[in-house]
């Protein structure tokens, strides 16, 4: 991609209402644009990051046997009413009425829809277990939208739902999902703490949150640095020592990026989703649900990985693999390198703009692509290579660029 043609603009000043680092940097670097409070457009750079993250999520879920679906965003009021959530959801539902006077709620979560689907397709124990996920826009009527992508009214979320014949089978799959989530977050270079949490409007007997420690986080967690146990402070207010190893607990600010629930028969009983077991008896489906906020993960990564100059993207979700900068008035040599890399399926953003080297470096730091290549008079026939956030610089021969391990 030629940067001169890229649909974005970098900004020198932070947005007036931006408090969080991720809000400031994602807007300044041209990854997102605000339409109104809590509602954002992803610009080309931001969408590339999002797609990288989505692919990581899909890979890990597919690896444990999950299947992808896409469910409606408009959900009939009567379905919400069957589970008593039409008027009790927190945050409240966005509600709309069609021209026939029929009410719908915009999907903030999809337990009702997926359970209704399962009711029609899962008849016997032979149909179990099943696990279905989607990645879709969600809508939450937040009283206060803040922090850029950290708290929004419309956002991208992955929600996974599983169906089982027994609680034991649910618990086994639940552990698989926890393992898949840990791999997803590791791919993003995020260190998480798995903490006991309230189930809130989703419900169920047990739930846990994946938390990332961050100074700007709105949640407080108690955690054990020795064995890794943790709990949301609302769940474990009086704990002083770790219940697992008796080490003194620490307290920290955190950002929630994933939430997993053991729902049991909460929704299947209300929506009459039953299956016939091996003895011919009808029993309610045993369910689990598992969420990841993709938009929030992107913001969290920026909260964790940045410096005074801009974003430092982890390699696997960097919008491009390489940022190629030319400091020569004649871009001929840089264009040849650009063609060589792109012809060999390398993702490159080539800053071909007629601006000063200083301006190019400032924008490169702000955007934060993980690997940087510079062509200049100073390097002669060599190419300067540097990783974002690191000081070490290497010089590479042009003919070796495809074979160089970086």
Give structural notes.
By secondary structure, the protein is α+β, with helices and mostly antiparallel strands. It has two domains: 11-217 and 254-307, BirA Bifunctional Protein, domain 2, CATH 3.30.930; 320-400, Anticodon-binding domain (Rossmann fold), CATH 3.40.50.800. Helix content is 26%, strand content 30%. Strands 3, 7, 8, 9, 10, 11, 12, 13 and 16 form a nine-stranded mixed sheet that branches. Strands 20-19-21-22-23 form a five-stranded mixed sheet, with helices on both faces. A three-stranded antiparallel sheet has the order 4-6-5.
Count of DSSP-assigned helices: 9
Shape call: elongated
State the separation between the terminal residues, measured CA to CA. 20 Å
Uncertain residue segments: none
Architecture of the largest domain in CATH?
2-Layer Sandwich
Strand content: 25-35%
Number of domains: 2
- Tell me the name of the CATH class of the largest domain: Alpha Beta
Rg estimate, integer Å? 24 Å
Helix content bin: 25-40%
Mean of residue pLDDT values = 95
How would you briefly describe this protein structure?
The chain is α+β, with helices and mostly antiparallel strands and 406 residues long. It is built from 9 helices and 23 strands.
Topology record:
Blueprint: H1 21-28, E1 32-36, E2 39-42, H2 44-63, E3 67-68, E4 74-76, H3 77-82, E5 95-97, E6 103-106, H4 111-121, E7 130-139, E8 154-164, H5 167-187, E9 193-196, E10 206-213, E11 219-223, E12 230-232, E13 250-264, H6 266-270, E14 274-276, E15 282-284, E16 286-293, H7 294-304, E17 306-307, E18 310-311, E19 322-326, H8 332-343, E20 348-351, H9 357-367, E21 371-375, E22 382-387, E23 393-397
Parallel strand pairs: 3-7, 19-20, 19-21
Antiparallel strand pairs: 1-2, 4-6, 5-6, 7-8, 8-16, 9-10, 10-13, 11-12, 11-13, 13-16, 14-15, 17-18, 21-22, 22-23
Helix pairs in contact: 1-7, 2-5
């Amino acid at each position: 991609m030629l940067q001169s043609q890229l649909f974005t603009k970098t900004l020198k000043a932070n947005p007036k209402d931006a408090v969080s680092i991720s809000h400031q940097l994602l807007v300044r670097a041209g990854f997102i644009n605000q339409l109104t409070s809590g509602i954002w457009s992803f610009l080309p750079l931001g969408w590339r990051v999002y797609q990288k993250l989505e692919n990581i999520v899909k890979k890990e879920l597919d690896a444990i046997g999950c299947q992808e679906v896409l469910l409606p965003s408009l959900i009939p009021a009567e379905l919400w009413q069957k589970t008593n959530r039409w008027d009790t959801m927190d945050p409240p539902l966005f509600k709309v009425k069609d021209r026939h006077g029929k009410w719908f709620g915009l999907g903030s979560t999809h337990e009702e829809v997926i359970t209704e689907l399962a009711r029609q397709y899962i008849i016997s124990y032979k149909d179990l277990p099943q696990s279905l996920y989607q990645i879709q826009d969600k809508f939450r009527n937040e009283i206060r939208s803040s922090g850029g992508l950290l708290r929004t009214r419309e956002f991208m979320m992955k929600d996974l739902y599983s169906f089982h014949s027994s609680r034991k089978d649910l618990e086994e799959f639940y552990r698989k999902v926890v393992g898949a989530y840990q791999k997803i977050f590791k791919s993003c270079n995020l260190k998480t703490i798995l903490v006991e949490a309230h189930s809130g409007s989703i419900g169920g007997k047990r739930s846990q949150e994946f938390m990332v420690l961050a100074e700007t986080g709105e949640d407080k967690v108690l955690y054990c640095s020795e064995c890794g146990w943790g709990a949301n402070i609302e769940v474990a207010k009086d704990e002083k020592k770790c219940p697992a190893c008796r080490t003194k607990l620490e307290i920290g600010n955190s950002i929630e990026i994933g939430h997993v629930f053991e729902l049991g028969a909460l929704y299947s009983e209300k929506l009459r989703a039953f299956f016939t077991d091996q003895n011919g008896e009808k029993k309610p489906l045993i369910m689990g649900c598992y969420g990841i906020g993709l938009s929030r993960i992107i913001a969290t990564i920026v909260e964790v990985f940045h410096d005074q100059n801009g974003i430092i993207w982890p390699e696997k979700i960097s919008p491009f693999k390489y940022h190629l900068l030319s400091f020569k008035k004649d871009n001929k040599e840089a264009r040849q390198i650009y063609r060589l890399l792109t012809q060999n399926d390398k993702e490159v953003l080539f800053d071909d703009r007629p601006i000063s080297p200083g301006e190019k470096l400032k924008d490169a730091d702000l955007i934060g692509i993980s690997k940087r290549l510079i062509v200049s008079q100073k390097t002669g026939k060599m190419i300067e290579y540097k990783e974002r956030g690191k000081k070490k610089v290497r010089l590479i021969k042009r003919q070796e660029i495809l074979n160089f391990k970086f």
